[in-house]
What does this fold into?
Amino acid sequence: MDKEHLLTTKLIIDGQFHDFQLYSGKFYLWTNKKELKIYNWNKWLTQLAYVDRPIYLEPQPTEQLHVSVDDLAPFLERTLSFSETIYDSALFNHTLYFSDYTGFYRLSLTKKDTERIRIWEQPVYSISLSTAGRMALSAGDAGLYEYLLSTQYYYEQLERQKVVRIFQLSSHFASHATWDHHNLIQYGKDPVHPAYFIQFNERKGQLHVLDCAPIDSLAKNNLHEQLQEYPLPLSLDKPSMQDGYLFSFEMDRTKIKKNALYRSKSIRLELKSAAANDQRMDFSSSLIVDASSPNFKVTLQNKKLLELPAQDVLKFRIYTRTRNYRNQLHILKEQSLELYIFSEIKR
It folds into this structure.
């Protein structure tokens, strides 16, 4: 895979949002901290095929569309309202897991009239799912926990169990955590620099916490040189004479072929921390996401596709647990939600 045959589609939803997620053909958009709108993703993308817009082939294939929440109205299937402010949420097996100040809950999405069920009275500020179907719960001063989503996994370290199916992994302050295969990277009061690395032994579903070690301060302060966001081609702003790019962004009239739903069999996004440690996988078609400060970057074979200041990224998601959406990167900014879809094209 090379940049010439990689199309970057940028969908910008203008507005202020709380959270978002793409799951099983549905696009879940938290328009605020108490309202969740559920859209039919496949119908929306099918409709986009009829929207006329230019595709720029130089310096790399790109296209861009601006939409509003009103534009998504024809694809709205359901709206859920909550009485309390939601801290964080996650989707697994058609169930919505979420937390507010009264505790941690689950809500089945297969039926419209189901009631939410409280799993734990402890408020959870961040929920993180792994590709292996494990869920980490960051509870601030209360520490870091794991909620066992299924009977596939179990602990014999029963002294770690707080309530049914919830086990404490760390007593240190936890603002959020990211998975590195079966291990966890825990963040403390500094949400940018990791604080602890929690190592597990997993054998046929049996989990055992081996160690919770501080991450070396020199390693976490190894920052890259400050860079600015690429003005083109991902933003598709018109270049000026001073840019020196005036003629490199002319649209090529060559016909191109792409997947109608922007799916890809080979392209996937991987977080740098996980990708760097996995020697078993071929990352030649992987886009590596580096979310470290001060720059948020996406690279293909060490060549930059996207770069923007990390402080502009309020939240981002990639979808490593899926086949249909693993080529997508969604970024929440202060005034918009930007959906990047990377797909193969034939020229």
